[in-house]
Design a protein that fits this description.
There is one protein chain. By secondary structure, this protein is of the alpha/beta class. It is 31% helix and 33% strand. It has 8 helices and 17 strands. The chain has a 5-stranded parallel beta sheet with strand order 2-1-3-6-7. Strands 12-11-10-14-13 form a 5-stranded antiparallel beta sheet, covered by helices on one side. Helix 1 crosses helix 5 and helix 2 packs parallel to helix 3. The longest helix has 18 residues. The radius of gyration is 21 Å and the shape is elongated.
């Protein structure tokens, strides 16, 4: 099994190589590529079975490689930034690991790749086509003053937009700003969240109960304190109630 690593920081590339070979001693890391330019040149005449790739390289984003060459090779993206999740899964991505990662996360990503290969076929192009939609992310990075904090998605009660800024409230009533647009969050946080309207994305577990208001709209009564009304318009009421009772 031939693997390629795309990473511009030498120590991180060597650390990732160690994790991969510790997980699968029979695999071979055939090349470590530190830039978009070198990766484009190498893949013109070479190939492999799996790629581990950083996203932000010194000379651009690694997405340029897969877009330009149209490679049919699955990619596990390893990055410090979670705002690229949707784009990653449109560029051969089968998994998305946030740095700093360790042996366990690499083991899990490899197991995910192997389960896909075994359950579908050895046809990597088929794997890629079936994985164009991202899986739900388990953690997000949020901002609080001069700090960046990882927070579990399951701990988030509500995403909302206020004066153009996307923020969130967790179940402990903490509020944080987040860099991703609400549309991207809707696509990545999973089916446990519902887009109530343009300004609100709500966790099913944050809904205490639902009241019917004038015009047959539904008013969501939340378990967290939030000053604005979160409403479901009547056209979406049936869809919302069906979602609400799902496991």
């Amino acid at each position: 099994m031939n693997v390629v690593i795309i990473e511009d920081e030498k120590n991180l590339a060597e650390e990732l190589q160690h994790y991969i070979l510790s997980a699968r001693k029979e695999w071979t890391v055939v090349k470590i590529l530190p830039s978009v330019k070198q990766a484009l040149a190498w893949f013109e005449t070479n190939t492999c079975q799996l790629v581990f790739s950083d996203i932000q390289l010194g000379d651009g984003l690694s997405f340029e490689i897969f877009h330009h060459l149209k490679l049919n090779v699955p990619v596990i993206f390893c990055t410090a930034f979670n705002e690229y999740a949707i784009q990653a899964f449109k560029n051969n991505g089968i998994d998305y690991i946030l740095k700093p990662y360790g042996q366990t996360l690499i083991n899990d990503a490899i197991a995910h790749y192997e389960s896909l290969r075994q359950s579908i076929s050895p046809d990597y192009h088929t794997i890629i086509q079936l994985l164009q939609k991202p899986t739900a992310t388990s953690r997000l990075l949020v901002s609080l003053r001069d700090k960046i904090i990882p927070i579990k998605t399951e701990d988030i009660a509500l995403f909302y937009i206020h004066h153009g800024q996307v923020s969130l409230i967790d179940f402990e009533q903490h509020k944080y700003m987040i860099s991703q647009p609400l549309d991207e969050l809707e696509a990545t946080v999973g089916p446990g969240f519902y887009r109530a309207d343009r300004q609100h994305l709500v966790n099913r577990k944050a809904i205490r109960d639902v009241s019917q208001s004038l015009g047959r709209k539904l008013l969501l009564n939340l378990l967290v304190e939030y000053n604005e009304a979160v409403m479901i318009r009547k056209e979406k009421a049936t869809e919302f109630l069906e979602w609400l009772i799902k496991d």
